[in-house]
Amino acid sequence: MKISTAIVTSLALLIGSTSAVPIVKKDDIDLTILQFALTLEHLENAFYKKAIAMMPESDFIAAGFTDDYYSRGLKYIVHDEEDHVRLLTAAITKAGGQPVQACTYEFPFNDVKSFASLSAILEGVGSSAYLGGAPLITSKAYLSVAGSILVTEALHNAIARSAINEIVPGTPYGTALTPNPVFTLAAAFIKSCPSSNQALPFKAYPALNTAQGLPAAPGMPFQFMVTEALPSSFFVTFIGGMDITSVTPTIASAYNFFATAPQNYGGQAYVLVTSTDLTGGPIDDSKILFGPAIVEFTPDAPTFDPNYIK
């Protein structure tokens, strides 16, 4: 792939909404965007490289995965992630910056099945990050390039979800995620980074965890836990597809609470603790207190009208 000047702006998709993001000088924003993108691509590249170094194809076959998944899916995903790192590194250098280096990571998988589950989650987050940044794109040419990258992320996600027998189109629409939640999810896997790496103007929120087994059914109660004291009043905000729904929790203690999942959610979704009701959106990062937690919903059986042809 040739390095295009369009890559600088197209990768703004990884940033998402500017809400609650510290202001960066216009002259510096392109490099900041590229550095953030490279930070995420380093993480994905390291994740997949660890997996293929640790587990040969025979391990995948023994765990019940097909040869097609490994040779015609996973290996191509690994190739793509490495190519993204090479592309971004060259683009940052060409723009006069010092590319951030890979960090030291800790990925919580120890076998094929736990790797495959985490792969589906990470690819879902990647797709959400690109989609969440689409409103930043003003150039039609740049938006076209960005859409091309988003398609690749979605293809990776489809491969990963199919491999673990999740319904691939869990929702009719993609789920957008704003920048600080993306940064929060990435930071959970990073142990340390080189001191020479450029500091990025994003923040990680306190963790939000759930005790609910996944996948879950819409409309069922979830238990959530935090490690910092909750405020006396807050909302639990679910994000899935084009739906954003805030619900009132049942507080059990200063560190855990229950919330009932909305109906009609399917596939990978995100849960935030927010200071205000954000139902209907948009997500304002300045209102986020904890999260996101990642949840998986088994969608309802599909319905359609065979006579609806207009």
Automatic annotation (TrEMBL):
Keyword presence, ATP-binding: no
Pfam families: Ferritin_2
UniProt KW keywords: Signal
Signal peptide: 1-20
Keyword field contains Signal: yes
PANTHER family reported in the protein's UniProt record: PROTEIN RDS1
Protein name stated in the entry: Uncharacterized protein
